[in-house]
């Protein structure tokens, strides 16, 4: 017979169960002992421990119907993945945990198994954060790892909401793509498109975020300003007309975002200032003056600083 483990400690101090009994009253099968040897070998050679457990599962079928063996096997592979960075071993560990959980019919070790599953999920979240440092692409690796994190986390917490984490992640991705774009606006125009996409994704999660509307408004407004600033003063009439058309288009694109931001936060001086700038861009002096007066009324200090005037 073998001794069934009565409890599992916290994963950080988990001691692998070691079978010390022999199987009496049945045909001797040396491979059935490999699970015992695997638990012992883990202390000094994790790869050997995995190999022994693989052999036990293959050559001794009863070992495949045992919670402790699959949990141990998960821990072996999790540790090897941590040491080597082998993502395949991480996946093997996850699948072994799910197999172990299925064999825990009474749910005696459910909490411990789920803790280990969540720890594996967090590896992918950490990978997502590391991928933010890779500026060679549109940070595709960030979302790939982040989505994997959520997928695995839900295996342990099916009712888990990722709303706040999603907003933070998409916001950071929007910022990173915008920074990349600003480094070379001609070469990295596609990064601006990505930034817009992520800000829009935030609004599909929470449509009451004034700051996100303002950021989107600024993206279009600043493009219009760039066009104005890059205009050659000696440009011909056709170029001037095309420039006016582009800046007006971008100004009109930005206004609905600023208006929504103002609706949600009417005391934000920068939003009021931006709206004034938009109407100046599209040559609507009455609306421009309306927002200038509003800014002066709500925040005279900001108004004076923005327009370099003295308060009366």
Write the layout of secondary structure elements.
Elements: H1 34-41, H2 46-59, H3 67-84, H4 87-103, H5 110-131, H6 140-156, H7 163-183, H8 189-205, H9 210-229, H10 237-264, H11 269-281, H12 285-298, H13 300-307
Helix pairs in contact: 1-2, 2-3, 3-4, 4-5, 5-6, 7-8, 8-9, 9-10, 9-11, 10-11, 11-12, 12-13
Task: Explain what this protein looks like in three dimensions.
This protein is mainly α. The chain has a domain at 1-125: Tetratricopeptide repeat domain (Serine Threonine Protein Phosphatase 5, Tetratricopeptide repeat). Helix content is 70%, strand content 0%. The protein is built from 13 helices and no strands. The chain has helices spanning 34-41, 46-59, 67-84, 87-103, 110-131, 140-156, 163-183, 189-205, 210-229, 237-264, 269-281, 285-298, 300-307. α9 (210-229) runs antiparallel to α10 (237-264), α9 packs parallel to α11 (269-281) and α10 runs antiparallel to α11 (269-281). It is elongated.
